[in-house]
Amino acid sequence: MLLIDTCSDLPAAIVEDLGVEVLNFPYTLAGLEHVDDFGRTQSHQEFYAAMRAGEHPTTMQVPRNSFIDVFTRYAAKGEPLLYLGFSSALSGTFDLAWLARKEVLEQYPNADIRLIDTKAAAVAEGLLVYEAARRWRDGMSLDDLERWVEAERPRLNGWFIVDDLETLRRGGRLNGAMAAAGTLLDVKPLLHVTDDGRLELKRSIRGRGKSMRALADLVAERAHEPSAQTIAIAHGDAPDDAEALKALIAERVDVADIITMQTGPVIGAHTGPGMLAVVFWGEAQ
Fold first, then answer.
1. 28 CB-contact burial (10 Å; exposed 0-12 / middle 13-18 / buried 19+)
2. Rounded to 5 degrees, what are φ and ψ at 101?
3. What is the topology classification, in CATH, of domain 2-153?
4. Full DSSP string of 38-74
């Protein structure tokens, strides 16, 4: 079985179609604890509306007991399990998975429990998980799938812009002076996911329109054989901008398919409303 987590931000219908096992991240909003379940119980629109109204959500790791429960269930059945997890550079959740695995193996020493750090988050994690799950669903063995993920992961290119610099500042990704100056000058930071799973500020761009065009330009410049691949666009409750970005990409390059995702609470709590991202396969970064 393939195990994923909800930081992958895939549309709920796609997750159901892929038939994978899912671990849910918890988060708090307005003093109440919620479970990230791909927007089923609390929609992404409600989540971002609360942020726009001044709420500051907090995120938490997947509890170790959740890992233990899933690992034990498959170990007891003698079924192999492969977990594709949220970047260990951004969360301690993957470390908890290793601790849970060690505990379960003490009771089931022959259990086949495999863990892969995707070194990705949100839409980047989602695209990697999507392609891996499609191959698993079509009959690829876990051995071959594990090799495929390890080989292809470095080719994942993830780039995004944020609209709310204050949210980045609160998350420690931008200092106060830069956030204040950027807001005053309408500067949009262009960030990307490094090959070891961290977020990195690459440059700042003046204006929303220019920053969106920069995302489309990156696809044209860096995507490898775009006409033969699926790319992903994600947004933080900015569907019109997501559609506009899709059109900008179509003007520049022929892409086989585009999946549009909504960024969920795990990353959305730190990037805020209006975040826009694109992920594609290209040369290793």
1. middle
2. -60, -45
3. Rossmann fold (3.40.50)
4. TTSSS-HHHHHHHHHTT---EE-PPPHHHHHHHHHHH
In the predicted model, residues of the chain with pLDDT beneath 70 are 164-187, 197, 199, 285
Q: Which amino acid is at 253?
A: V
The residues, ordered by sequence, that sit 6+ positions from 186 with a Cβ below 8 Å of its Cβ are 206, 207, 208
CB 188 within 8 A of CB 201: no
Q: What is the pLDDT of residues 70-123, one digit of tens each?
A: 999 999 999 999 999 999 988 999 999 999 999 999 999 999 999 999 999 999
Strand, coil or helix: 256: coil
Cα separation, 224 vs 164, whole angstroms: 31
Spell out the domain ranges in the chain. Answer: 2-153, 155-281
Cβ atoms of 145 and 82 within 8 Å: the answer is yes
Q: Domain 155-281 belongs to what architecture?
A: 2-Layer Sandwich (3.30)
Under a CB-based contact definition with an 8 Å cutoff, are residues 231 and 124 in contact? Answer: no
